[in-house]
Amino acid sequence: MEIPPKSPDGSEKSPQSKELLTSNTASTLCISSRSESIWTSASRSKWDIYHKPVIVVSVGAAVFLFGVVITSLSCILTTNKKVYKMCGPAFLSLGLMLLVCGLVWIPIIRKKQKQRQKSQFLQSLKSFFFNR
């Protein structure tokens, strides 16, 4: 059985383990950036808050309309009728799913914003009364 060599300073940790302990990893960077965003009270614009659900809703509406067009083509055209009948409902369902997900996402964001505002207000009240 082989014994790992001790480091020159006499500690039992290898130089590789020290390097792993002191290095900044991506997970610590994500944690620190998240904690900074919680404590900063800079107001964000409506677009910064709602841009993701708006994009999902618009993409969902576009895909849904494309599915409507493809499905209606299966009724009008006689060539490639099987392809239109297969692809049309698929685009309809995908577009409807994206549309509903985006529309549900918006009230969730509003609720989180209200909770965050209440939390900041209560924190300021707490700090006002307990820091005297």
Automatic annotation (TrEMBL):
Is the Transmembrane keyword given for this protein? yes
Q: Which UniProt keywords apply?
A: Membrane, Transmembrane, Transmembrane helix
GO CC, any one term: plasma membrane
User: Which topology term describes how it sits in the membrane?
Assistant: Multi-pass membrane protein
Give the molecular function GO annotations: phosphatidylinositol bisphosphate binding; transmembrane transporter binding
Question: Where found, per UniProt?
Answer: Membrane
Determine if Signal is one of this entry's keywords.
no
Q: Which Pfam families match?
A: PIRT
Instruction: Output the superkingdom of the source species.
Output: Eukaryota
Which residue windows are transmembrane per the record?
A: 54-79, 91-109
Give the region (Disordered) as residue ranges: 1-22
According to UniProt, the name of this protein is PIRT protein
Q: Which organism is it from?
A: Baryphthengus martii (Rufous motmot)
Taxonomic classification, please?
Answer: Eukaryota, Metazoa, Chordata, Craniata, Vertebrata
Q: Which gene does this sequence derive from?
A: Pirt
